Amino acid sequence: MTMLINIHGFVLALCTPSPSLMDIMIRPFRRFLCDSGDAAVTVSIHEHDPPYASLPTLRASFSTPRNIVYRGDDMKVIDYFGKGIVVETAGESVFHVHSRDHNFLREAFYLMVLSLFGQHCDRNRMLRIHAMALSYRDTAILLPITPGGGKSTMAMAMLERDGIKLISDDEPVLDRHGFIHPFQLRIGVLDGARLKDVPDEYIYAIDRMEFGLKHFIDCEYWSDRLETRALRKCILFRTYRQLNGTAAISPASKSSVFKTLIRDAVIGIGIYQGLEFIVSHSTLEVFSKIRLAANRTILAARLTRSASTYEMAMSSDVSANADIFHEFIGKAVCV
Q: How far apart are CA 253 and CA 85, in angstroms?
C-alpha cells in the first residue's frame, strides 16, 4: 500500500502493508495527500523487530541524544537505542523504518518528513520560521515564541476569535517571492485538561522518545479556520515573556525583529533539523554550509523589510494575551 504526500513541492511516497498503520502514519499529513507525482523520497515502514543480525559491520559516524548513526560505503543505519532503526541505501533515496513500537514509528516518520522537507526548502530557497502564524483579512501575522513558550496554547485561544485563521501553529513557510504558505499539521499540548472541549475523534497521543507523552489535535477540528492561501502582506513580531506583568504591544525596530528571525529561522532554534538525516559523516558538515546560512539570512532580511514590525510582552494569562493580540490585529490590519 502506497500513499503520496506533497508538501509545497516536496513529494514523498509512504509504503506499508497495513492499512491501519498507514492511517496512523499519515494522520498529521492528511492535508497534503495527493494522487500523483514523482516522489523524491520513498519511506517503507516495516512493522517488526529491527533486523540487526542481517546488517553488516558498520562504524559509528556520530550520535544525537536520540540515536547513533552508523555509516558504510553504501549504507547508513540510524539506531534509536533498540526501539527501532532506519536504514538508508546510498543513491536510492529510500528509507526503511523497522520497529514494532507504533509510538516510535509515528514519531520517527513525522520527524523524518520534517527534516527532508527542510532540506527541500533549503534547495528551493524557502524558509521555515519557528513561529505561530495566523491570518486576518488577507494579512499573515507571525508571532515567534521560544520553545515551550506557549505557541500552541496561544494559537488555540486565538482560533476562538472572530476572523482568525491558522497558517501554522509552529512552522510557516516563506518562499523566495515573499509569500507565506500554510503548513498545518497538528496542534500539540502537554496539558490534557486543555482538550476538554475537543471531541475525542480529533485527539491522539504519542509517548515520545525523549520528551514523554504529548497530546495532539488534528487541524481538521478547525476546518473552517484553516488558511489555504499564500499571503504576501505580513505583520511580524518579536516577543518576550515577563513575570507579574501585563500583556502589551508596541512598535519594534526592524533590526530587533530581524535578530529574532536569526534565531527562529536562520539558525532555526525550535525547528526540527534532523541531523541524522542531513549529515553524512560528522556534525562539522552542518557548520560548513555557509551558502545555506546566507540564503536563509537573505530571505529573513527580505521578510523583515517588507513586514510591519512590533514587540509583544506576554503575561502568564493566556486569555489576556489573546485578547490584547486580537484587539491589536483588528486595528493594525485595518490601517
A: 47
